[in-house]
Amino acid sequence: MTAQAGPSTQHIVEKVWLSIAERRLRPGVQLKEEQLATIFNVSRAKVRQALTALERDGLVTIIPNRGAFVSKPSVEEARDVFFVRRTVERCVIERLCKSVSKADLKRLRDHVAKERVANAQDITSEIIKLSGGFHLLLAETLGSDFLFTTMRDLIARSSLITAVYRNTNRFNCGPDEHAEIVEAVAANDAEKAIRLMAHHLEHVESELDLSEIRDLSHDLRAALA
Ligand SMILES: [Zn+2]
Asked: Which of 65, 86, 165, 191 is the most buried (most CB within 10 A)?
C-alpha cells in the first residue's frame, strides 16, 4: 500500500472526532503527525489536512513549532456553545413542527428506539453517537444544509465540552427526553416541543461542572485503537 492509499481525510477526521466524543482522546493530548500517519497508514500531508479540518471545527488547536493538540474549551466557550444551541435548536423545533411528515416522525421514533437499545445494553460509544445524532437528525429532517452544518459543528463542540466538563461518568442525554420532544412535534404542539427542548438542553448543561478542568490521560495510540 502506498502512502497515498488508505483511509480518506474525512475518515481520519471522523475517527478522531469519535475518539474525542467518546472521551478516549482527552483535551490537551498531542496529536503527533508522524504517529497519526503510521496509525492510519497515510501520508503526513493527509494527516495535516485532517488536523486543519479539525482545527476549523474547534476540536484541535495547532500551535506553531509545537504541533496539534486536542482543544481545551474554556468555561466561557462552553457556556457560549450551549447559548447558541438553545437558540438554534429552538429554531429547528419551531420549523420542524410546521414541516414534519409521517416519514420524518418514523425516522425520529426509530432513532429514539435505537437510543433505548444502546442505553439498555450500556454501549457507551453508541449512546454518545446516538445522543448527538438525535439533535443532528432533527436538523437534517428540515433539509437545510446550513442548519445541519451548524448543528454538526455545535454537536462536535458539545462533545468536546462534555469530555472536559462532565461531572458524572454517565452520558445520559437520555432517550426519554428525546422521545417526549418527538411526541410533542408529532402532536404539532410547537410551544410544548420548544419548552421540552429548552428544558432538555438546560438538563444537559446542568450536568457539566463548569468550574474546573478535569484530569487528563494521554495515550494517543490507545485512544485511537
Ligand atoms: Zn439530547
From this structure: 165
Under 8 Å CB-to-CB from 112, ≥6 apart: which residues?
134, 175, 178, 179, 182
pLDDT digits (tens, 9 = 90+) for 54-95: 998 788 999 999 999 999 888 899 999 999 999 999 999 999
Residue 40 C-alpha to ligand 1 middle, in angstroms?
32
Spatial distance between the Cα atoms of 92 and 145, rounded to a whole number of angstroms: 12
Residue 65 CA to ligand 1 centre (angstroms): 39
- Residue 131 C-alpha to ligand 1 middle, in angstroms? 5
Ordered domains of the chain (ranges, CATH): 9-72+213-224 (1.10.10.10), 75-206 (1.20.120.530)
Give residue 67 CA to ligand 1 midpoint distance, Å.
34
Residue 71 contacts residue 59 (beta carbons within 8 Å): yes
